[in-house]
Amino acid sequence: MFQIGDPVVHPVRGAGVVTGIEELQRHGKIKAYYRIKLLGQTRTSLMIPVEGAAAKGLRRAIQQSKLNRVRRVLCADPQRLPANHKARYELVKSKLRTGDLLQVAEAVRDMAWRQRREGSLNTRGKRIYKRGIKLLAGEIAVALGVELDAGEAQVRKWLWKNPSLEIATAS
Known about the structure:
Layout: E1 7-10, E2 14-26, E3 29-38, E4 45-49, E5 59-60, H1 67-75, H2 85-97, H3 101-118, H4 123-144, H5 148-160, H6 163-170
Antiparallel strand pairs: 1-2, 1-5, 2-3, 3-4
Helix pairs in contact: 1-3, 2-3, 2-4, 3-4, 3-6, 4-5
């Protein structure tokens, strides 16, 4: 069970902080819900039932001490993505949907490599890449206790330290 102030991550909505635990009546039953303030959104709160929160993928954000694992993934050699755009986007989207931070980091790294190798991504590719960066940056930001922009800057800094991405840029 989460407490008020805990940094959490929803696999689709991203990172946030539990700002309250409220009881609401739904379908004639009173249930407890987590109120989550999503990072980077000023007026939106996410309400997740306490019962079944884990089944919906809600989890505690990564600890600051474990961020080095994310950096290692971002700095590792990329995996070549499928040439077929449908297969490529399904693979990347499936990694983003897992809610696993290391899978998200792999997807972002691989899309960054493809973007630098190809010169750019198409509209769909850019949208998926930006979504991955936002998910990754949000969790890094809540782990470090900083704003979303600072989390995104950290992601980009680690990506630029990847020698494979520098080589891809030069070619």
